[in-house]
Structure prediction request, 122 residues.
Amino acid sequence: MPKFVKCPRCDLNYMPVGEKYCKVCMEEVRGDRGTEDVEMCSVCKEFPALPGRDVCLMCLKDMEGTPSEEENEAQAAMIAAETEDEETTEDADAAEIPEDEELNSKLRDAESELKSVEDLVE
Prediction:
């Protein structure tokens, strides 16, 4: 069974006894391993930029602006009012439309025809 020791260069990876460096360090020394340049945020220059953007997540949130509690409450009130209006409209629409027996009969006939066609297809 081979013995392993820590790499003297990185002191992180293990390598077989007798090797000069671990595989990772050997790739870096030879230049085989590409190093990715991380683009830093153009605003704060402190955090890495998001993929496809030139700003970090923190700066992006600041630029977009976070809504205040008052704005959140106003938006919630608008949504509640719209929901109530929709419910009222639906109730009114249902009350205004009388049942039409002829229409219901045609609908039942069409559904039965569709069902028979589906049975033929299967």
About this structure: The chain has a mean pLDDT of 79.
